Amino acid sequence: MASALVLTSTNPYGSRTLSVERDQVSTVAYLRDPSGTVHGAVWLANHVPAPTSVDHGRLAAGLPPIMPIAHTRFPQGTEPFDGSRLQALWFEEGDGVALFEEEELLAVIPGWADLDRGMPGYARDARGESPFGWELAEALDGLVPRVRKAMEYWTWREAEGSWSSYQQFAMGHLDSRLGPPGRYWDAGEGGPRLGVTERPGGFGRDYTVLSTVGMSCQRMPKAELYDTPNRVELAVATGRDPRVAARLFLWLGRYPWRSVTWLGHGHTARWQHQAGTFPLGGYEGVIMLAEPAGLPDISGFAVGGDAVQWLWLVPVTDTELRLAAERGHEVLSSRLIPQNRI
User: Fold this and answer.
1) Residue 188 region, left (φ>0) first, then alpha (ψ -120 to 50), else beta?
2) Structure pTM?
3) C-alpha dihedral over 161, 167, 170, 175, to 10 degrees?
4) Are 67 and 51 contacting, i.e. CB atoms less than 8 angstroms apart?
């Protein structure tokens, strides 16, 4: 019997899909990207008596694995799941998901799950640690607060007025740091909600500052694994047409959630569009700098108890991009004078 789809759920950013699949022998949950590549998985249940060892034949045939007897709470197997009783709860970052059977936590595939490193998800019916699933009960102290926080986050995001309230606080913070706003653009559909605010010259400066509004409304995937700020916004200082410079945010503003990664101080990005179309003149990309000397201090804003870090996009040449790649961003950032590239 070929595998049947019991449940499917795509995260709000369109970058990961949970699929619960079963045949007559077992049920497994997979976390895939849009291309179908599996990034995480966890066994959920056997539906026949458990074998004494791993069934490599099933794995070679691409069938859901069957858990060996030493690692299942139910050696004789259980009845197949009713898909109507299953529900997915995505983590705020979109890189991990919890699976419920009605009100009971059935499994968790966290953002750090990595099958290549022998790190599957956690399952209610698993015992100990196996390549197919780790025991959920042993990890509840760490996972339950995360699941509860995800519930609270989506309850807030889905509440009427949540975006306008967040937007008001973010804009008010920028008012206090950069002066009155100019134009505001909505960056359109296709991922986390994103806006761009223009702050014309003033407050002792003769250039415009543009900032994203909305990136910090959700944590970035994977950031916690690298001990780096998990909420950011992007900013750029420009003496050019702000409408053109704002294209940088259409390029990078949703990148963390679409690509399931994070942006941080010292990261570089090469312009991927047609040569000569870079929005800030004759450069080839940007380096992202936190609190660069000579540019306004925009710090002091927090969301959900997390400090928000503004990353300034400073244009760089092809040579500078290669220098950063070969020798590290410190070599490049120590030489840059951001004010000279406005």
Assistant:
1) left
2) 0.94
3) -120
4) no
